[in-house]
Design brief:
The structure is a homodimer.
Chain A (H helix, E strand, L loop, with lengths): L10 H27 L2 H6 L6 H6 L3 H16 L4 H6 L3 H32 L4 H29 L7 H20 L5 H12 L20
Chain A binds a DNA duplex through helix 1 and helix 3.
DNA sequence: GTTTTCCCTTGACATTCGCCCAGAAAAATC
DNA sequence: GATTTTTCTGGGCGAATGTCAAGGGAAAAC
């Protein structure tokens, strides 16, 4: 009844492909308006389909949102893998990573706004929690990979848990995003500067592999 | 036109008092349902008034929300002042502060959820930004006071900006809140542990005023 | 005691929402 | 080319929303 009849060729792929198209369109609208103000009709208006089709591919508004969140995740997982792979020195990694953080805010600001919006919504909407928790975990692992590579290049150990390291960097990132959205011109440069100053503190020695003591001033 | 007619006695005080009552009631509902799902009728239902009165005291839904946010701020400013005043040693301050952080999540969880909800909403709703930015700044100053007192007691210097320190601690706090709301039993203890491990890293020497190197493990 | 002012209730409004459905259009199958 | 299946359209439903207006009723002012 729910539409899981497969005849012969490859209808499942087609089905998923259309879902992805709709999700992509939905993400664009969600990124602009946020979770609360985005309606299925608005999503459909910004796509090439009518509003009825949303309910054909998604049982529920929540199912659409969750699908979008997972779909969005897929594009984030490998965002900093190049940075990790290309790095040849601790300082080089630090510079590339901090720059990339600022860059993704500049290039994909609305998407990040949406992420924080949805994560907040998950505190009130239990149906969102599983997907949100999974993404948060994935991001934590991503940060952890960066940090481990940085520690390797610096020849030192990390003295933080993966959870703590991610939480703190996420806090910096979020503040920078807020500043960026609010129009503060120095938000992005400030983020890079802060990250370059903070990450060395997460290693054991702290003062040897990087520039002098005072880290982020402004 | 907006209702600034004062006759004789003290109508302004009465007016503001009622606004505060309504704001308090609204905050209770907002904390439970979040910004998106809370309607003026729902707020009124959870109060002793009817839904029409909201528009009598607040021109707009947004004005009500902003008033609520500012009203909520007033109760937060001095939350850790006792901790600062009562502390006699760096370790004592650290323990008291980290415990208080976890305590406020346990006691006022919904209110904090609402705060993060509204802060996220401010990225889509420009009308919220001013109030949100102001609160964020106030919280930053609060954290900075704690950190400065801690540095004084430890006889060391802080090697972070106020913005960076707040952002990172806020990140830890937010993750703990998310875990707490999701039902993770170790979220609160984990926060205290993480904070006790992280804050010493924010000072110059890092390894002398506190316990050994490895800080937050789990 | 009458009038005026203020506070609040109640009901209604236009709009919008998620959801559902009957049927058209398109694609696949025979 | 006919038939079946899949995909999509557009309208409509009930419920909920923010906002507003008309009016009651109590307190204050005269």
């Amino acid at each position: 009844m729910a539409g899981v009849n497969r005849a012969r060729v490859a209808p499942a792929d087609k089905h998923d492909k259309r879902r992805s198209e709709l999700a992509e369109s939905a993400l664009r609208t969600l990124g602009e308006l946020g979770y609360a103000r985005t309606s299925l009709r608005e999503i459909a208006n910004n796509s090439e389909f009518s509003h009825g089709v949303m309910h054909y591919y998604f049982a529920d508004k929540l199912e659409l949102i969750v699908y979008c969140v997972r779909y969005y995740k897929a594009r984030c997982v490998t965002r900093y893998d190049d940075v990790i792979a290309d790095a040849t020195s601790a300082d080089g990694l630090l510079n590339a990573f901090s720059a990339k953080l600022a860059e993704t805010i500049r290039d994909e600001g609305p998407m990040h706004s949406l992420w924080y919006d949805l994560r907040s919504q998950s505190m009130f909407e239990p149906g969102l929690r599983e997907a949100v928790t999974l993404i948060d975990r994935t991001l934590e692992e991503m940060i952890w990979r960066v940090l481990r590579r940085y520690a390797d290049l610096a020849g030192q150990d990390i003295r933080l848990s993966a959870a703590a390291a991610y939480a703190m960097l996420d806090g910096l990132f979020q503040q920078a995003l807020l500043g960026h959205v609010a129009g503060r011109a120095d938000a992005l440069d400030g983020l890079s500067q802060q990250v370059r100053g903070v990450i060395p503190l997460m290693l054991t020695a702290g003062d040897r592999a990087t520039r002098p003591a005072r880290a982020a001033a402004g």
